[in-house]
Amino acid sequence: MEKELATRPYRPPRLRGRLEGYFQKTVIVLGLSIILAALVTRALNDSEAGILSHPPRHASATISRCHSITAKVSPPQDFHKRSHSDRFVHGTKPVLVKRATIWTGGKNGTEVYRGDILLDKGLIKSVGRLHHGVLAAYGSDLVVVDAKNAWVTPGIVDIHSHLGDAPSPALDGAEDDNSSKGTVQPWLRSLDGLNTHDDSYQLSIAGGVTTSLILPGSANAIGGQAFVIKLRSTEERTPTSMLLEPPYNIDTSFPDPSLPPRWRHMKHACGENPSSQYKDTRMDTNWAFREAYKKAFDIKQKQDNYCSLALAGKWKGLGDFPEDLQWEALVDVVRGRVKVNAHCYEAVDLDALVRLSNEFKFPIAAFHHASEAYLVPDLLKKAYVTDSRHLLYEAQQAYYYGFPPNLAIASVTSTAAEVMGMGHHLVIWDSHPLALGATPSQVFIDGIPQLESPHVAQKPQNYNDLPKVPNFDKEAVEAVKYEGLPPLAPKKATGDVVVFTNVRSVYKRTADAVKLLFASETELGVAVAQNGSLVCSGVHVDCLTALDGAADATFVDLEGGSIAPGLVSFGSPLGLNHIQAEDSTNDGDVFDPLVKGVPKILGGDTAIVRAVDGLLFGSRDAYLAYRVGVTSGITAPTHGNFYSGLGTSFSLGAAHKLEAGAVIQDITAVHVSVRHFSKPSVSTQIAALRRLLLGPHKGATGHYFKKVVEGEIPLVVEAHSADIIATLIILKKEIELETRINLKLTITGASEAHILAKELAESGVGVILNPSRPFPYVWEDRRILPGPPLSKDSAIVKLVDRGVTVGIGCEEIWSARNLPFDVAWAAIEAGGRISMKDALAIGSVNVQKLLGVEVSEEDADLVATRGGELLDVHSKVVGVLSPRRRSVEIL
Ligand SMILES: *[C@@H]1O[C@H](CO)[C@@H](O)[C@H](O)[C@H]1NC(C)=O
Ligand SMILES: *[C@@H]1O[C@H](CO)[C@@H](O)[C@H](O)[C@H]1NC(C)=O
Ligand SMILES: *[C@@H]1O[C@H](CO)[C@@H](O)[C@H](O)[C@H]1NC(C)=O
């Protein structure tokens, strides 16, 4: 039936059938047949033409409807002449941002002006040197902000956000982004679940994000309609009042046809995401897409046929305008009036979606997560953590790995705005936007300043310049050559001796700190390694003995670079996982005796598992981290609840466990988590811990907990809430009172630890902050200290200031490779209160010390960087000196 409509000229079906039947029965009546035939033919012709003497009452409404369904999306005719934004808030004062370095996004992202910006009535009125008369007219109303040559860019636009729909902190029952009602649901709207009380609005604004496209989740192939919001809070406090240029369909099924339509947005997802929720295969998902699109395509076709008759005045038997409230949004997709945002990773998925768009002739606005940028394969993937505050960080990393700077800024501002069909909002930055740690000193949304009394960290003058970055051309060529999987295993230098030349500085770790061995601004030095050990560093004359007989040494020019301790990863299952989402590539979870009895074959509830037994070497994430200077990892057995087991420390550069130096220390500490799992209760977990510590010490578990109470190995507890951390401090005292021995306790996660900085310092408890830049993921994380511009201190600074030993962690196996940036960020954000040496310690020796790894000064890995120090963005790691592996690896 629908097919017929699509391929044949339209005839009202009921009338046609009846007349045809009538013909067959009347042909025998020959006498009447001629007259009748003439009459019938006329009637048939008239009815085929469908002309009625009087058009129906709804004719004019229907005609304008018919015009509107084919109207193209465009701004209203007077858009560029408008005097104020429709989001303008009365009473907002005009603002002059003067002496700004303005990146406009124009000229392919290369246009930069020095001048002033005038904001009025929610619009950017002018940019450049403004005429005195223009300003004088504003009189005393004008608020003047002196940018003092700081960089100003359009606000950051997050085109992939679940803010408000997947709220922060996450609460059971408040997660409104995934529907479980079906694979295909174009009729759902993310707007309906938008929570206006989310903690992340303010945090995102503090990162310069002004506008977000709120997408439904990716558990559905077609998850529903997405909406663009501005993140500022509104007087109305409603989700609707946050919308930016919403489509007219949101509060009527029949928008005023005279208005040009506005862009609509829709979420699609392919591959693993929709598959995992519905146990669909890719074939199932793609059929669901095709079936849905066929439906929408047919409705569109019916509407077009209907309208071509209506517009020709052929009303007879036309009936009602064909439509379907459930499918109207997808029909609009086929009409090219919806930006489709597809969440797809792999070539197979991208290809299927492109075929779909060809089959049903609709455009796709953006592929999210598409891992095509081989050099930074996880960059885009990362953009979907709900923490959009650090979206610019993604652009900074892309730039570091060779993405052109004009496009890097554009990718999170103007290009992104263009993808959504809109722009207009400003951020004043405390440094060049591509300098690591760039932080807004003010954010304007609709002309309204968003930061009440922003805290701005002191930064060196050169942070205002575009940072120099190393060259990754070779890696880019390799990535393409190997289809994104270039070989990563490090190669040993030939010969026992490696001489590093043109060395500007050498840092070395001691038992509990990092010290500067050598630094020179004038005469660059040398560093000599024998069998992986640094034997000498200094100016040339200092190392003559070591250089003696170095004729067949390997020489590496560091071009003013440096040697520093290798960083240490902790906090993710790196070393126990290859692909986090794929069980068959991972070590798996341990049994938890607090939840369920442990099999007897393991010794029952007194069993304790060693992470070292499950180590997996040679993962791409391990090698990628190694190649940026994260030379070792510490990991604990992966667990879902309270009980973990014995941690281990290992090399990220080794290919297998039997290689020299692959395992650094097989048993490092006892690990548990005390968190708000639904069960058992926090108090039950504490009770279990108390029992395990006080004894009786039975079996293998007893053996290691005895070592803990005797102060031999640390107890490492993952805890986030300040209340739990406080309880742990009390428990430590309780045990110590009994044993008179100092119990080594380390808290990891530690989102709220800053609240107890003084108490932690007093009781000698160290902290590994993970993530290093906190985010209120769940309730127990919610009292974070956000750092500049929202608070003067970051959590790290506050803890360090109080004398707490602090290390930082990596949340994901792939994020270990960002550790040098994260450590550098902590130092930059501290505005000079954390030295480079201390920052290096936070990323290396502190982590080892807090987690029970005992590495002597002589055995510690060192990393050689070219063109700068390990924590400078302009440096690149070129070698790893590993005394334990008795080698220098050249990367
Ligand atoms: C925009 O800039 C990029 C990177 O610098 C360059 O490759 C591209 O050709 C430029 N496009 C235009 C239209 O100039
Ligand atoms: C929605 O579903 C996707 C895909 O399964 C998942 O990654 C995401 O975490 C879900 N959102 C929430 C809030 O659970
Ligand atoms: C490196 O180690 C090998 C094997 O132990 C030894 O023979 C050699 O002398 C060492 N080389 C240097 C320069 O110390």
From TrEMBL:
Q: Which residues cross the membrane?
A: 21-40
Any one GO cellular component localisation term in the record: cytoplasm
One GO MF term = allantoinase activity
The UniProt entry, under Gene3D superfamilies, shows: Metal-dependent hydrolases
Q: Do you know which InterPro entries this protein is assigned to?
A: DHOase/Allantoinase_Hydrolase, Metal-dep_hydrolase_composite, Metal_Hydrolase
What keywords appear on the UniProt entry?
Membrane, Transmembrane, Transmembrane helix
Q: Name one GO biological process term.
A: purine nucleobase catabolic process
Q: What is this protein called?
A: Carbohydrate esterase family 9 protein
Q: Which organism is it from?
A: Asterophora parasitica
